[in-house]
Amino acid sequence: MSSAQSFQQAPHKLLVIPGPVECSDSILYANASPSVSHVSPAFISVFGDCLRMLRKVLYAEKTGQPFMIAGSGTLGWDQTAANLVEPGEECLVLNHGYFGDSFADCLETYGAKVTVLKAAIGGIVDEKELTKALKEKKFKLVTITHVDTSTGVLAPAARYAELIHQASPDTLIALDAVCAAGSEEIRFDDWGIDVVVTAPQKGLGVPPGLSLVMASKKALGVLNARKAPVSSYYVSWRRWLPIMEAYEAGQPKYFATPPVQLVTALNVGLKQILDDSPSLQDRFQIHKDVSKYVKDELEKMGCGFVPLSRDHSANGMTAARYPQGIKAADVLGPLAERDIVVAGGLHKDIASEYFRVGHMGVTAVDKSRGDVDKILKNVKEVLDKARAKQA
Amino acid sequence: MSSAQSFQQAPHKLLVIPGPVECSDSILYANASPSVSHVSPAFISVFGDCLRMLRKVLYAEKTGQPFMIAGSGTLGWDQTAANLVEPGEECLVLNHGYFGDSFADCLETYGAKVTVLKAAIGGIVDEKELTKALKEKKFKLVTITHVDTSTGVLAPAARYAELIHQASPDTLIALDAVCAAGSEEIRFDDWGIDVVVTAPQKGLGVPPGLSLVMASKKALGVLNARKAPVSSYYVSWRRWLPIMEAYEAGQPKYFATPPVQLVTALNVGLKQILDDSPSLQDRFQIHKDVSKYVKDELEKMGCGFVPLSRDHSANGMTAARYPQGIKAADVLGPLAERDIVVAGGLHKDIASEYFRVGHMGVTAVDKSRGDVDKILKNVKEVLDKARAKQA
């Protein structure tokens, strides 16, 4: 029999895109758990613990109701739109790239009237523009992409939330934290966030396949008070809330079969984040330190950055512009040949001008792996080689 | 390093509920694959092969367009309802238990007007009633639960499809095969089915977390011709079809991050079904033989069955009524103490009167495991013990 202690994942290229990311052996071993009944006492406890730990990771223990549903991170947008927005209601999207566009698309699909405040590429939405927009219209919901994976921009979520609460206390705030949870601090209760949308395969370091959502008491109150029926079956919180409550209370209840292995893997991943050293607070500091180190080193190699300011740069990923004269083909393929997988650009206007490196999960936190130095050493070598070829 | 050859899952209770089911070691090992990029050439090929193999397993190579999306099996109902039914359109649900009720709920959520033909518990919808209903109204869609997991009833799907085609050739036919694919023969092309909804964790023997759907050319034509916009974002085939086509063509394309490990596990599972002995045809025969054996033996022990006829009993599971004087508590707990997990009743009117045994995947097909005899031996012993206590 293989054991959690003896299991080692197969040799593979180092995966350092902005998600999915490298998983620890113990998380992958948990993903290979024997099948269990989704209503067995043992699994109910594993599931319930995931919900409790999600509250801790997001500092949501006062007001947060977690939902954990089989699906991609994208499904969290549907959960937000289908449950909280009624047809014809006004929503405001603070857009820092591709994922802002998509959240707006999703809201419109559910009948919302969407106003978009679009930052310049690499920039952030100006506070004054936000305040102005909030004065002009009453919005049911404002969405913030915490880290837009397409640009690596980190939105000042706490500050935006403060401004929204000041100008329009009833307005709900949804934070798309798919590329932020686990690598950026999120203070759900303190910031007064109403929905956090996330997924396991980025800062949480677990395989993809779950939509993880935290909803505030206020958000659930808005759901209760809505007039139009929820227009989706699978993402209806009215169907899922009793399930989540039952699992947390240690009781079986069925709506749709949860991905039992993946939930078991998430349980191990969340435990590693909460119980192992470093502490949650130290973890966020490590992410900041690693991010600074990566960005400083890339800068020395002649790279620029998509985010216009270090203050608004993600700590779990870096969107680096190629140095003068270097093309995508000089970097992406040569790195893959060296068994290092980074991602190309995603923002359509500048896709060929930059590449994206993820430094989330074990890659950033488990120094003994040496991932970060391996990435930087190889990026330097392929850049040097490309320059030598040109000379 | 652990290898596919050396990996063995942890010791565990034998899981023989009607899904999730036992997985082979090699499938679980695939579920512990290192993370890969969802747009890497290697993963694109794994994903594309899954789609091609799904067509083969469902005999859908002429007209089938597969969709593979992170989610529970339930999400397939949303896919069907959101893409194919416009608000106010008439649907007919052939109801053989709990899952028929739920499919009807889902259709109504998306605005359908639903007529339900409800069979007596354990019975099937009468052919004459179906023909009569088809004459009375023009239905956009008829749904058939192939195996209703709550009752173990196997619907005569081919015959129903024939009657529907005769009476109403334009009507779409959706087959809920969550508890059927892999253990019951489904002839998508030949029967003229328009949607098969399924999931990996039952007859396909793979961990849960994917919604697997096969749609006909006719169904995609209906989608193209629809007037109302698709009212859901995540389950919109308009968003997923280009993704599925790209993956099959070996090209990267992004809408939402697929669960890369689970897709890798499904790939191994489908290969085992298609390439290993027994052949697909032999596999269905084995399921019939195992099912007959299980039912014959349980009958000898004094059990009855929820399905009123052997002809309409599922081959991948058995819904067995407790013998006279025996209660759920005499069977479920004592079996669990013997490390055998079966399921209680699910149909609300008779939940306390029966139990459900799954004999899908490796439990039925891999005789070397001895699962079936282990189940039967232990059921006999707990029944004997309960009787002895009464005497």
TrEMBL record, chains A, B:
<dbReference type="GO" id="GO:0004760">
    <property type="term" value="F:L-serine-pyruvate transaminase activity"/>
</dbReference>
<feature type="domain" description="Aminotransferase class V">
    <location>
        <begin position="29"/>
        <end position="347"/>
    </location>
</feature>
<protein>
    <recommendedName>
        <fullName>alanine--glyoxylate transaminase</fullName>
        <ecNumber>2.6.1.44</ecNumber>
    </recommendedName>
</protein>
<keyword id="KW-0663">Pyridoxal phosphate</keyword>
<dbReference type="Pfam" id="PF00266">
    <property type="entry name" value="Aminotran_5"/>
</dbReference>
<dbReference type="GO" id="GO:0005777">
    <property type="term" value="C:peroxisome"/>
</dbReference>
<comment type="similarity">
    <text>Belongs to the class-V pyridoxal-phosphate-dependent aminotransferase family.</text>
</comment>
<dbReference type="InterPro" id="IPR024169">
    <property type="entry name" value="SP_NH2Trfase/AEP_transaminase"/>
</dbReference>
<dbReference type="GO" id="GO:0008453">
    <property type="term" value="F:alanine-glyoxylate transaminase activity"/>
</dbReference>
<dbReference type="InterPro" id="IPR015421">
    <property type="entry name" value="PyrdxlP-dep_Trfase_major"/>
</dbReference>
<keyword id="KW-0808">Transferase</keyword>
<dbReference type="InterPro" id="IPR000192">
    <property type="entry name" value="Aminotrans_V_dom"/>
</dbReference>
<keyword id="KW-0032">Aminotransferase</keyword>
<feature type="binding site">
    <location>
        <position position="356"/>
    </location>
    <ligand>
        <name>substrate</name>
    </ligand>
</feature>
<dbReference type="InterPro" id="IPR015422">
    <property type="entry name" value="PyrdxlP-dep_Trfase_small"/>
</dbReference>
<feature type="modified residue" description="N6-(pyridoxal phosphate)lysine">
    <location>
        <position position="202"/>
    </location>
</feature>
<dbReference type="InterPro" id="IPR015424">
    <property type="entry name" value="PyrdxlP-dep_Trfase"/>
</dbReference>
<dbReference type="GO" id="GO:0019265">
    <property type="term" value="P:glycine biosynthetic process, by transamination of glyoxylate"/>
</dbReference>
